[in-house]
Amino acid sequence: MARYFSVLGEPTRLRILHALCQQEKCVNEIIKVTALAQANVSRHLGLMYQAGMLSRRREGTQIFYKVADPMYIELCRTVSTQVAGRADSASVSRESFNHFVEDMTPRQSPKVKTRAKRNPPANQKEKASV
Q1: What's the pLDDT at 91?
Q2: Which of 62, 75, 63, 57 is nearest to 21 (CA)?
Q3: How far is CA 99 from each of CA 42, 93, 95, 115, 123, rounded to the nearest angstrom?
Q4: Three-class secondary structure of residue 112 per DSSP
Q5: How many whole angstroms separate alpha carbon 124 and alpha carbon 118?
Q6: In the predicted model, what is the mean pLDDT of residues 33-43?
Q7: Comparing C-alpha atoms, which of 72, 5, 59, 70 is closest to residue 29?
Q8: Three-class DSSP labels, 49-83
Q9: Which of 19, 71, 74, 103 is within CB 3.0–4.6 Å of 11 for a Cys-Cys bond?
């Protein structure tokens, strides 16, 4: 039992578990959903697979992972519900719960802004390009 809780005690693994709650996904899809580095995702997937939380299958060059036992999904939901219920009490602040939910929510990678080409002021001439 301690082994299972130690695996679930890492926020990154909870994010991966959250990403796999609905359906199986290949490693690349998990990386996109969690916005984590490939090496980090692969390491955590390996630990979760060894612990028996995930099953995997190979299709060509891709490896697909899914939650091996729905008990893990139910466990996470139960704990989340309990934390949410206690967030209303004085012992756990709403801010702490929001931080927990934020850690569980898959993050999108930030979009890179591109600089717009500026037109020169009307009173200045553009340099001729040759």
Answers
A1: 52
A2: 75
A3: 25, 10, 6, 33, 53
A4: coil
A5: 13
A6: 94
A7: 59
A8: HHCCCEEEEEECCEEEEEECCHHHHHHHHHHHHHH
A9: 103
Stated as kind and residue range, the H or E segment containing 59 is: strand 54-59
Report the C-alpha gap between 126 and 88 in whole angstroms: 63
Q: State the angle between helix axes of 27-34 and 38-50 in degrees (0 to 180), rounded to the nearest 10.
A: 110
Write out pLDDT tens, residues 69-83.
888 888 878 877 777
Pair of tokens at residue 120: 């020169």
Q: What does DSSP say about strands 54-59 and 25-26: parallel, antiparallel, or unpaired? A: unpaired
Q: In what order do the strands lie in the sheet with 62-67?
A: 25-26, 62-67, 54-59
Query: In whole angstroms, how large is the CA radius of gyration of the chain?
Result: 22
Alpha-carbon gap, residue 120 to 128, rounded angstroms: 13
Structure tokens given for 94: 């709403």
pLDDT digits (tens, 9 = 90+) for 39-51: 999 999 999 999 9
Give the tokens for residue 34. Answer: 């969690």
Instruction: Determine the Cα–Cα distance for residues 45 and 41; give it in Å rounded to an integer.
Output: 6
Cβ atoms < 10 Å from Cβ of 17: 21
